Amino acid sequence: MKPKSISFTVITIIFLSLIILTGEVIAAGGSKTVSGSISGITYFAEKSVYTYTTSWTASVKSSAISNIAIIGYTWWTVYRICTDDVYAYYFRSENQSNRNSNYFEDIKWIDNYQYSCNPGYFVKKSASLGNHQFTLNSTHQYPYVEYVYP
Amino acid sequence: MYRKAYIVLIALLGLAAGFILLMAQTSGEVKGEPAAQTALPTAVEEVIQAEPSVAPAVAAEVAMSAAQVREVLLERAKQNLFKPGWVLVRETFTDFTKTEDYVVVPLNGQIIPKNWVRETWLLVDEGLQVKAMFSEKKMLDGTIVSLTRASDGFFGKTLNAEILPNVQIDYWTKTETMHRLIEQGETQEVVFQFLSLDGKRILHVVYSDVFPSPVRMDGLKQPLISFTTEDYYDWQTGQFLLSEGWATLTDDSRQLVGRLEMVLDFNSTPPESVLEGFSITPEE
Prior knowledge:
- The complex is a heterodimer of chains A (about 150) and B (about 280).
- By secondary structure, chain A is mostly beta strands.
- Chain A has a single domain (about 25-150), classed as Immunoglobulin-like.
- In chain A, about 15% of the residues lie in helices and about 65% in strands.
- Chain A contains one helix and seven strands.
- In chain A, strands 1, 2, 3, 4, 5, 6 and 7 form a seven-stranded antiparallel beta sheet that branches.
- Chain B is built from six helices and twelve strands.
- Chain B folds into three domains: about 1-30; about 45-80 and about 175-250, no CATH class; about 85-90 and about 100-170 and about 265-284, no CATH class.
């Protein structure tokens, strides 16, 4: 075995050990980010869904490389729908933002037992979606971003 | 040269395995509460108060893997959980965050309650197979929020028969989380303990998720940094008893978030309204 392979094995072992010892879980799911520019300032609009052992989270994040007048979202919806087309979870919020800032974030945490599917049915998809808001010098941008898992 | 590399690799693997075992033991001692101080969930405490003869709870580590624990639970559930005839499964979820009681889905008017009771009638045949099911989820004020009906034609008309394989005994053992972790290779730590209650051996299963960053949540005084689910099973019968969800907050305090309780009843028969539902198709 080459020294490179040994190093890789050792690093993998240490990485897995750290995960086990800290209890931190590698969550399934992911995120989607859209970038743009407002008056020359680059911004990022992100939605995510991550599933953990007995719960899951959904988030909305708006960020910019420097402060702008309003940063946030105009609407944000989180839902989980089951294979019988019944919603196990639904949340909607509107017009949340920070002023003169370059960051806004909101996260929802949801317990699997509390918001479960009816007996016999399974989770079809979990989603985080909505329009972000970036405002500077009376210019507004509302990029729509949606992340659906799986 | 290759031989030397192999020896180095084996030595490193040995060291890593030893380190992991040592830390896992230490971690278990820290995370698993000492025997005399093991706290029982409120519902179990109530049982203790009602029955003064009950011995105090004693915790003991379970020297079994998740796969072995699940296998035993399923085997015992198959022997004890169901009997031929009607079985009523009553699940109650209690939310302790004291925020709004429900949300309405604007797209279809569906109500999603925070606190709920779900009553499921299962018709079990001689082979202990579920042949028909009626499940009704209600808010605490009795408002019905969802209803599921299924039969393979053994009783009443055939409807939603395709979901019956999903509601057999395995489903009601509530070992889905354990099953998922086993399928993922048991890379996540799960703590198993035995508790003694009223002469019964209770299996206590603890799952913990640590979040990458604190999560703000309505009803919690501070953001949560980790969430622990504690499931309790009757080890003799394999029956799921209850589950509690605990949030660990940024100040390291713990707050009870929710509790799911499950009770089985073999001595009741469904009301006429439930039985009649099997003789009509959804279109009628």
